[in-house]
Write a structure and sequence with these properties.
Strand content: 35-45%
CATH class of the largest domain: Mainly Beta
CATH topology of the largest domain: Elongation Factor Tu (Ef-tu), domain 3
Number of helices: 2
Shape: elongated
Order of helices and strands: EEEEEHEHEEEEEE
Largest sheet: 6 strands, antiparallel, barrel
CATH architecture of the largest domain: Beta Barrel
Structural class: mainly beta
Radius of gyration: 19 Å
Helix content: under 10%
Length: 174
């Protein structure tokens, strides 16, 4: 996650014998008769849904056959699913991948930001709210919560290793 971009969130595997998996989205309702199904991706860059990519729909491996944009967002077609009834059978399922993508400089996983100390003024990052324009850090300070747009102008320093973020204090924002 970096200012002005959304990034994916992580969930662990449900088995100690499997490598950890990362949740990258969930499936919505079928679209049309040919097996396409709505996709609610956890990240806007859709890198995990390029044709030929392997994903897990719940615990079952699938290969992405095609990805298209519909009126209400992305739609995915998996190899071996070619009818509306087959797409309906995986409706609502979670989609996982075996490993996270590599982060670019200045990007962070949401889970790595939660728990960071907020400087100056104190407080702690308790959540990351995703939005269409930019993400926001949800800060808890003295019993109150507020959101800071996660943009470089307002969050100039993120030091995960040292355990803190620096924010620019603006009247009315905190």
């Amino acid at each position: 996650m970096q200012p002005e971009k959304k990034k994916e969130s992580a969930l662990g595997s449900n088995s100690s014998t499997e490598p950890p998996r990362v949740r990258v989205g969930r499936l919505g309702k079928p679209n049309g008769l040919d097996g396409y199904i709505g996709l609610y991706a956890d990240t806007p860059d859709l890198v995990h849904f390029e044709p030929g990519s392997k994903v897990f729909v719940d615990d079952t491996p699938h290969v992405v056959g095609s990805l298209r944009q519909g009126k209400k967002g992305a739609q995915v077609l998996f190899e071996g699913i070619s009818t509306r009834a087959e797409a309906e059978s995986i409706r609502g399922a979670q989609v996982y991948v075996s490993e996270r993508r590599q982060l670019d400089e200045g990007e962070y996983w949401p889970g790595d930001l939660i728990g960071l100390e907020v400087r100056p003024g104190g407080g702690e990052v308790v959540d990351v709210a995703h939005g269409p324009a930019q993400d926001r850090l949800v800060v808890q300070r003295e019993g109150a919560r507020f959101e800071i747009p996660f943009v470089a102008a307002l969050v100039p320093v993120v030091d995960v290793a040292a355990g803190y973020v620096e924010i620019v204090e603006i009247d009315g924002l905190s």
